[in-house]
Amino acid sequence: MAASLLSARAMSDSATIIPLDNVEPALVEALLDRAFEPERHERTAYKVRDGVDWLPALSFAALDSSEMLVGSIQCWPVALTDPEGRAHPMIMVGPVAVLPALQNMGYGKALMSASMACIDGRAPLPQVMVGDPEYYGRFWGFSNEGTAGWDLPGPFDPRRLLVRCENPAVLPVNGMLGPWLR
């Protein structure tokens, strides 16, 4: 067990994180298909960000020591539209994708950390994601507190709808999450 943990750490320590826009889009799509299956386009998260482009400044790729693409993270401009029709801009984090054979080796954590470190602390937009509250809460401060009145354009597990915000008091209590088309 200790030897496998050491080799996993060594693999993720040798990762190189680069801007995702430096990677051929077809390679990213192939990675996403392998990590999430080709049916991923039917997921609710895809409907939330439909029609918008990912944010290059917050989206990254992980390369292993042989410079093979092993993971990626994309962030998207979305908004929570409150019952009065006002759009509250946010950043949707994800998908965080890692090749199945290399999951649990630190690549996803390195990608998340790189993306979260690039958010401008002077005027950060709230970040929203669908994920495991225990994991994303422990490392990056995401929580499902305050999202109970939020809705998505498709089925979702409300426990897994997470937000990270410097001042949660500014977040609407109710609303529909969708693409921010400005």
Description:
With 182 residues, this protein is α+β, with helices and mostly antiparallel strands. The chain has helices spanning 2-13, 25-36, 44-48, 107-117, 133-140, and strands at residues 16-19, 60-63, 69-81, 87-98, 127-130, 149-151, 161-164, 174-179. It has a single domain (2-179), classed as Aminopeptidase, CATH 3.40.630.30. It contains five helices and eight strands. Strands 1, 2, 3, 4, 5, 6, 7 and 8 form an eight-stranded mixed beta sheet that branches. A hairpin with a 5-residue loop joins strand 3 and strand 4 (87-98). The termini are far apart. The model is unreliable at 1-12 (pLDDT under 50).
Q: Report the principal-axis shape.
A: globular
Give the H and E element order: HEHHEEEHEHEEE
Radius of gyration of CA atoms, rounded to a whole number: 17 Å
Q: What's the tally of helices?
A: 5
User: What name does CATH use for the topology?
Assistant: Aminopeptidase
> What is the average of the pLDDT values?
90
Beta fraction: 25-35%
Low-confidence stretches: 1-12
Tally of domains: 1
- Count every beta strand, where a strand is a DSSP E run of 2 or more residues: 8
CATH-wise, what's the superfamily? Answer: Gcn5-related N-acetyltransferase (GNAT)
Distance between the termini: 51 Å
